[in-house]
Every structure is written in C-alpha cells, then in structure tokens.
Write a structure and sequence with these properties.
heterodimer; A: globular; B: alpha/beta; Rossmann fold; 9-stranded mixed beta sheet; 17 strands; 29% helix; 30% strand
Chain lengths: 263, 327
C-alpha cells in the first residue's frame, strides 16, 4: 500500500505565554518551540503501522518554509521512506483552501492508495484541508477517523462523532482519511534517530513545478483572509486565589465546604 | 431575494443543538438583510423534524429519500449541490461538527463557493460577512473576512458558540424538494453506529469531579490527583489528551466527543480549557481551575482560579483537606 501523508510544522502554544506581534495579524513566534502538528503525528504513525503490516511506501509532504524540514525529518526518523516540501514565496498567506490546492497538485501525478492528513492543525484550526484535497483529487474521503481496518481494495473506518458515538463506514481505495488524535500511540523519536536521516535529501517544489499560477496560490488563491487578531474576551473571568500555597489551600477548602464539596 | 440556508443537523431521529443555534443566528442575519431564512432538512421519514423546524424559519426545504437515512458525505454533497445551485442562497450555514466538518469543505470546493470554517462570530457587512474565528487552540481570536466577492458564501459555525434567542415564531412552509439521488454506487458507505465502551465509573453521576488535562504530563503523576479526589470524595475525570495517551479510559473524558457533566463541583487541573472540553463541563455548579498559564481559557469559564504549578499546589491542597476534615 502506497501512502502519502501531509503534515505541518506548528508552534507549540499550549503551554506558552503568547503575545500579539507588531503586525497585529499574528502572534510573536520568536521564542516559541515548534513541532509536528499533533494530529499529523498520529497520521504519520498510522501510515507507518500500515506499511509495517502491509508493505508499500510512506511519502510525507508539507507546504511550508525550509523550517518544515525539521518536522519532515522527524517523520523520516519515524519510518517514512521519502519526504518533500512545497515552498514558494507565492504560497504566503494561504488559507485552508489554498493550502489544499498546493498539496493536491503536488500529489496529483503520484500513484497512491491512501492519503492521510491530520483532522486539523493546532494553529489555524481550519479542519478543512484534507476534505478539500479529496474533492480536488476526485477521491472519496472519511474525516475524523479513530480506527482503520484495511480490507480488499477498501477500508473500514471509524469516525469519531459527538458524545462517545462512532460512525463506521467503508470506503473504496484510493481514498483520503483525516486522522483524529488517539488513534494510535505515536512512536518516540530519539536524537539518534533524527541523526540517521539528517542527510536524506528533502526536495522542494515551487508553484511553477506544480503548474500553479500565482493567482491560484497563497493569499490571492484563498477564500478568506485574516484581518487582525485579538485576545478573546473571557467574560467576568475567575476570582483568582492568591497567596502562599498554604493560604490558597485554605481558600480552596473554604470554597469546597461552602459548595458542599467536603463534608 | 437574499436567502440564507441553514443545513439542519440531526442524528438518530433528533435535531442537534447546533441546528437551533444556527437558526437563531441565521434569523438575525436574514432580518438584518431583509432576506429570508430557509432550513434544509435531508433524511428519511423526517416530517416530524420538519414540523419542529417550521417555527424557526420562513421555509423548510425537505429532501426525503431512503438513501438519506444515514448521513453520508457523498449523498449530502449531491443533494446540497443541486439545492444550492438552484436556489443560489447568499449564505449557507453548516455546523462545525463531526458531520459538518465532513461535508462542508468538499461541498464548498465543489461549488467554488468561499468557505470560512469554525466561526464563532458572523455579521453581515457590505454584501459580505465579517467573521470571527479562534486560532492557537482558542488562545487568540481572529477577525476574518472573505477575500472573494460572493455573491455566495458558506460558513461552518462552532457548536455552542451562538446562543439560541427566543423570538416570535415564524410560520415556515414545508417545501418538498426531490432528491434526484439514484442507486448509482457510492464510494463511501455507512455501516453502523457504535457506542464507546462504558467506563467503570459513570462520571455523569458524580457530584464532585476532579479533572486532569495535558498538564499532568505523565501517567505516573495521576495518583497525585487521585489522592486529592479521594480526599474530597470526588471522581477522577479528564480532558481529551489524557485519553489520547491512554492514561485514563474513554469513559472518563469530559467534552464534545466524551461526556457532558454537571457536577456540583468541578476542579480542572492542568486543563487549558479548549472549547471542546468547556462544552462538556460549563454547566457545573462551581468550577475551580488550576493552571500555570494565567491566559489559559479555562479561567474564563471558572469561578475560581489558581495560577500555579499543579505539582506544587495539589499536594498542599490535599494535605489541607485531610487535616481540616479531621479537625
């Protein structure tokens, strides 16, 4: 089975203190750690597990700058066979739709049985790239997949719905699946593992290589644009309990007692 | 006439909340634009749902077909392509849910209609729409606009982000629309629904829940919080990352894809407060949040907040409770 996985390198903002940058259109990214998008780490792991079971190849690609090599190498270290990158100044400002177009054009001429993407990205959270790519490539898709069973020329996939419910569907191959977190346990990548693939070539392709016109990519090929960013209103917010740990603990106890939390 | 079409979401015979939320926002938008609000209902034997939708829209576009008994991205795309091509609504609203995320992106791409996903705000502005989205896991909001000029637009709206405002009922007419689906084979087929395995403890029945999130960092740190829960007679729950890492079973998960809980007391420890989690616990009586990031969204929903390293503060709170309970 030949599998293509689309990935993205994103800033890790879950635990970071973040600030709006001077442009007012993004956050200040210097000082933030970057890593493979969490959803994508499950997608690449799933691809590698399928390869280990069924044979075939795993090719990983990313639309992004040279920095993306870091995440692509992580995927190579996990067990992907090949990686390439889609980089062009004209790609700047791409929304989910324009990103899908770049990825779809890069995949169009390659043979594949299965494309995997993460369900969404941690940073912009569009949750649309995979499904749009499937439409552009004319293959069926299943989104938010948390279990896969490969059968003869088709896949049985479980989709995660709300409230603990799953929807089981089957889909003919070739197909595109968007992968939900928790589907597997992404393997650990050691520094030694990364070193082993450090010299592997990662080719880069631009808009002209993909036969894309400048007006089809980047901001000009996008549906939407981001005008400005701002901090969310948090309503009244919480009453903050402050002081020494002992004092905070006392306040917590008092609240719990008032609200019936401790007898 | 400016028409807004809301695509109704239903499952197992029930309309989902996001449908009412979209209709509420859709009505305000359509009234502001001097247009009309329609709701598209796709299904098999769903006249009862159509009746329920009548007071909330000017028109119920009812598409009934045996092939629409279960949601399928392919049948939805075919039916809605036909409907939107014929009616040319200015705006199509779809839920940013497991269902909407599955068909809206391909439908919009197929119809070449610009799409903005996961919106938490939408306002009409100069023949187009101004949108609000959240980025970076809900830590930042973004004002977003459509680059392409319509005349048609599509949005997916976040479930729970729009209040349902009661208004004078409308007397929507039910308009039956033929589906034009054929028995032509589909590349994707619905097989069945499956419930997640039930956990040992039913967290929806607990009065006190102590929930942990990504901040717990490792499975071996869980006993620390379990002891706190025990000291309070509470039950352990968690947010999604803890289940993804298999540290606690799925039955413990609070949030959109897990359980919705309404305990008297909810203590959120090391949980940032992503909307998917908040949707499952905002109905709790009293919420206390412990997080080291003062900007964590959880502090927006909690009544009490503690900015601290959980590994330092949790043992102190646990000891305090033990000590004071004795006295």
């Amino acid at each position: 089975m030949n599998i293509i996985v689309c990935i993205k390198r994103v800033p890790d903002t879950a635990d970071a203190d973040i600030f709006i940058d001077k442009s007012g259109k993004d956050i200040e990214k210097s000082g933030l750690a970057f890593d493979l998008n969490e959803w994508d780490s499950y997608a690449i792991e799933e691809a590698i597990q399928l390869k280990e079971k069924l044979g075939g190849t795993v090719t990983v690609l990313s639309a992004g700058g040279e920095d993306s090599n870091e995440s692509l190498r992580k995927c190579l270290a996990m067990g992907a066979d090949d990686a390439f990158r889609l980089t062009d100044p004209a790609f700047a400002g791409a929304d989910g739709f324009a990103t899908a177009r770049i990825l779809a054009e890069a995949i169009r001429k390659r043979p594949f049985d299965l494309i995997l993407t993460g369900t969404q990205a941690e940073d912009d959270g569009y949750g649309q790239v995979g499904v749009v790519m499937a439409e552009m490539l004319g293959v069926p898709h299943v989104s938010i997949v948390n279990r896969i069973e490969v059968q003869e020329k088709k896949i049985k996939a479980h989709r995660e719905l709300e409230g603990g419910l799953e929807e089981v569907v089957e889909v003919d191959l070739p197909a595109l699946l968007t992968i939900q977190t928790g589907i597997n346990e992404p393997r650990y990548v050691s520094i030694m593992g990364i070193r082993k693939v450090a010299k592997k070539e990662i080719k880069a392709f631009g808009a002209s290589d993909l036969n894309l016109k400048p007006e089809e990519v980047g901001l000009s090929g996008s549906d939407i644009q981001l005008d400005k960013v701002f901090l969310p209103l948090v309503g009244e917010g919480a009453e903050m309990l402050e002081g020494k740990p002992e004092e905070i603990a006392q306040k917590v106890f008092d609240i719990l007692r008032d609200k019936g939390g401790v007898a | 006439m400016k028409e807004i079409i809301v695509v109704a979401e239903h499952r197992r015979g029930e309309l989902r909340d996001v449908t009412w939320e979209m209709l509420s926002r859709g009505r305000e938008l359509s009234e502001g634009l001097g247009g009309e609000l329609s709701v598209a209902l796709l299904g098999k034997d769903v006249k009862n749902l159509a009746e329920a939708l009548k007071p909330k829209a000017n028109r119920v576009l009812l598409i009934e077909d045996n092939r629409l008994e279960f949601y399928n991205s392919e049948t939805y795309e075919k039916v809605l392509t036909q409907l939107i091509t014929e009616r040319k609504p200015m705006l199509t609203m779809i839920g940013h849910t497991a269902t909407g995320m599955d068909f809206a992106p391909s439908l919009a791409a197929h119809l070449k209609i610009p799409l903005a996903t996961d919106c938490i705000g939408i306002d009409a502005k100069d023949e187009t729409f101004a949108l609000t989205r959240q980025i970076y896991g809900g830590k930042i909001n973004a004002a977003v606009s459509f680059l392409k000029k319509g005349p048609q637009y599509m949005v997916t709206l976040r479930a729970g982000a729009f209040p349902v405002i009661e208004k004078e009922p409308l007397s929507g007419e039910i308009v039956s629309v033929p589906s034009l689906l054929t028995d032509e084979g589909l590349a994707r087929r619905f097989l069945e629904y499956m419930e997640a395995a039930a956990g040992e403890v039913d967290i929806t029945q607990a009065d006190i829940l102590i929930a942990i999130g990504r901040g717990i960092k490792d499975a071996e740190n869980i006993p620390l919080v379990k002891e706190l829960a025990d000291s309070m007679g509470g039950v352990l729950a968690c947010s999604r990352p803890v289940v993804d890492k298999k540290w606690l079973p799925k039955g413990c998960q609070v949030g959109t894809s897990g359980k919705t809980v309404k305990p008297k007391i909810y203590v959120a420890i090391g949980i940032s407060g992503a909307f998917q989690h908040v949707a499952g616990m905002k109905g709790a009586g009293t919420i206390i949040a412990i997080n080291k990031d003062p900007k964590a969204p959880i502090f927006g929903v909690a009544q009490y907040g503690i900015v601290a390293d959980l590994f330092k503060i949790v043992p102190v709170i646990k000891e305090k409770i033990k000590q004071l309970k004795k006295s």
